[in-house]
Specification:
There is one protein chain. By secondary structure, the protein is α+β, with helices and mostly antiparallel strands. Helix content is 29%, strand content 27%. The chain is built from twelve helices and 19 strands. Strand 17 and strand 18 form a beta hairpin. Bound molecules: adenosine-5'-triphosphate (ATP) and magnesium ion. Adenosine-5'-triphosphate is lined by residues 186, 209, 211, 218-219, 222, 224, 357-360, 403-405, 407-408, 419. The site of adenosine-5'-triphosphate has 17 residues, from strand 11, strand 15, strand 16 and helix 12.
């Protein structure tokens, strides 16, 4: 008999089927036993006798039986197969499982984060954990499709780079045949030089940050959603493109992840007609007026400022998202485009959502001479960014772009408390799959 996917069983009432999957939970009541069996398509209740009662959580099984309608009062609205159940006729155990270190059948997994990660290969099997990565897949796929629809071309960004033009503190050094190379913190220079070849590009790539502190929003290995495009008329065009992409991501998640959102009691971030935008200095003024905290001379927003300006955006503009623009030029990398009206500030724009930065972007310099001036002013060496300069020497149109962190977006769509939950295999200062305690460092 061919395998039937669990999701197809409601259409097959009265028929004999063979399902294959994992035992999620077994409930034995005397001679009668119930089990929830899961496969990639869903979950179904199976009814049987002693054979079924003998199964243990996470056993891999093949079960043949008849699909029956459940009695009216036994219908479970919470699952797609809630109107049916499978009466067991034959069970084959394909693979056994050791006793589980925690109760996988529980409604909530309720594990502390370290345990959730120490047992990652197992906790990834939990339905609510699976749901996080289904949402993430939709986020990334929507990012791709939004840009493909606007004629952007996907490229593969390199991860090994020979120098660190964006500042060296947060970079991982790698031994490369006896020389030092680095893990890329961002595909920024590559994506902008590619505008010279393809006009509109995007990439879904890993970036690496040697974040020296442990926070709930930083990983050391991040999935970066990068876009860059040329022939822009203004920096606002970059912001508009980003808004279009983010709205498309939300609409796709809303359409395809209803069940997953419900599992987390999550609602998508609230949006008004247009995402509000404020300049850094105006944002600081607003924060000063609201809290009395005077940060008006600061060159950036601190985490509590990001939270406060997001609160303002929600209360005053009805939006969970807000763009902050015109950051201080000298605090940004050399390629930022200073506002000609006041070059102290740049055409740079961050997107904040639900209290945290989701992305950074803006217009970039494209005039070769100005780029060279910035390179000198920022104290960089031309030979360190040779290919990038090569491209701009031979003409690149006005350009801009942005980078969204996929884990941050997933985390804030679902309301997760820690970004580690939004990464299959999160890396931080203290963990690369296993905990890196000081004693086991060589
Ligand atoms: P933050 O100030 O929040 O540390 P950043 O300004 O250093 O972020 P960017 O260099 O602007 O980060 O990177 C673009 C986007 O990539 C960020 O807005 C964020 O979504 C994501 N990102 C950057 N660093 C990390 C990290 N260490 N962990 C998770 N996501 C990150
Ligand atoms: Mg940033």
């Amino acid at each position: 008999m061919e395998r039937t996917l669990i999701a197809d069983t409601p259409k097959l009432v009265g028929e004999k089927v063979k399902i294959k999957g994992f035992v999620h939970v077994v409930r034995a009541h005397g001679k009668i036993a119930f089990a929830d069996i899961t496969d990639r398509s869903g979950v179904i209740q199976v009814v049987g006798g002693e054979d079924l009662a003998a199964l243990r959580p996470q056993y891999v099984v093949e079960i043949e039986g008849t699909v029956n309608s459940r009695p009216e009062k036994m219908v479970n609205d919470k699952i797609d197969t809630g109107k049916v159940e499978l009466s067991v006729e034959k069970i084959v155990v394909i693979a056994k499982s050791e006793e589980m270190p925690f109760d996988m059948g529980a409604e909530e997994l309720n594990l502390e984060l370290p345990t959730l990660l120490d047992y990652r290969a197992l906790t990834l099997r939990y339905p609510k954990v699976i749901a996080i990565f289904k949402v993430q897949e939709v986020v990334i796929d929507a990012f791709r499709r939004a840009l493909q629809a606007k004629d952007f071309m996907e490229f593969q960004a390199p991860s090994i780079i020979s120098s660190v033009p964006e500042g060296g503190a947060e970079v991982f050094k790698v031994d490369y045949f006896g020389r030092n190379v680095y893990l890329s913190q961002s595909p920024q220079l590559y994506k902008s030089l590619l505008v010279g070849a393809f006009e509109r590009v995007f990439s879904v790539n890993k970036i690496f940050r040697a974040e020296p502190s442990v926070t709930t929003r930083h990983l050391t290995e991040v999935t970066s959603l990068d876009a860059e495009f040329g022939f822009i008329d203004s920096w606002e065009e970059v912001q508009e493109m980003e808004e279009y992409v983010v709205r498309f991501i939300f609409s796709e998640v809303e359409k395809k992840c209803t069940k997953e959102l419900a599992m987390f009691g999550a609602t998508l971030p609230k949006l008004s007609d247009k995402i509000p935008q404020v300049k850094l200095r105006d944002a600081q003024e607003i924060i000063f007026k609201r809290t009395g905290r005077d940060i008006r001379e600061e060159k950036d927003l601190a985490p509590e400022d990001e939270r406060e300006i997001c609160k303002w955006a929600l209360e005053e503009k009805g939006s969970d998202l807000v763009f902050i623009s015109h950051f201080v030029t000298k605090k940004k990398p050399f390629y930022v485009y200073p506002d000609p009206k006041d070059p102290t500030y740049a055409f740079s724009v961050d997107l904040l959502g639900r209290g945290v930065e989701w992305s950074s972007g803006g217009q970039r310099l494209n005039d070769y001479k100005t780029i060279l001036e910035h390179v000198r002013e920022w104290g960089l060496k031309e030979e360190d960014i040779e290919l990038y300069l090569q491209s701009f020497k031979y003409g690149v149109p006005p350009l801009g772009g942005f980078a969204l962190g996929a884990e941050r977006v997933t985390m804030h769509i679902l309301g997760l408390k820690n970004i580690r939950e939004a990464s299959l295999f999160p890396r931080d200062m203290e963990r690369v799959d296993v905990r890196l305690s000081e004693t086991d460092q060589k």
